[in-house]
Amino acid sequence: MEISVADAKNKLPELIKAVEDGHPVTICRRGVPVVDIVRTRKPAQKKRTLGTLKGQIKFLDPDWWKPMPDEEVEAFLAGR
């Protein structure tokens, strides 16, 4: 399938669908082919593997999520 640059701008989703269905698309500028759109052979990303950092993350303070006591807040603000 050959298509002009102007038509390609307006019909990009349809062109992508055609390429997914196995039909290569050639985009032409003033009747001269400049770009071929073809389906990729493999996915761009590898499938994610969950749990790869298990056991590698260490919490230095198990109570990190608790609010700071007033004394610590005052000491922090005094140190500015």
Structural write-up:
With 80 residues, this protein is an alpha+beta fold. It has a domain at 2-37. The chain contains 3 helices and 3 strands. It has helices at 5-10, 12-20, 70-78, and strands at residues 2-4, 25-29, 32-37. The chain has a 3-stranded mixed beta sheet with strand order 1-2-3. The protein is elongated. The N and C termini lie far apart (67 Å). The model has no long low-confidence stretch (mean pLDDT 87).
List keywords for this structure.
alpha+beta; elongated; 80 residues; 3-stranded mixed β-sheet; 3 strands
- Helix and strand pattern: EHHEEH
**Largest β-sheet summary:** 3 strands, mixed
Based on CA atoms alone, the radius of gyration comes out at: 28 Å
Shape, per Cα inertia axes: elongated
Please count the beta strands (DSSP E, at least 2 residues each). Answer: 3
- Would you identify the regions where 5 or more consecutive residues have pLDDT less than 50? none
Strand numbers in spatial order across the main sheet: 1-2-3
Helix content: 25-40%
Q: Report the total helices.
A: 3
Strand content: 15-25%
The computed structural class is alpha+beta
Mean pLDDT: 87
Amino- and carboxy-terminal Cα gap: 67 Å
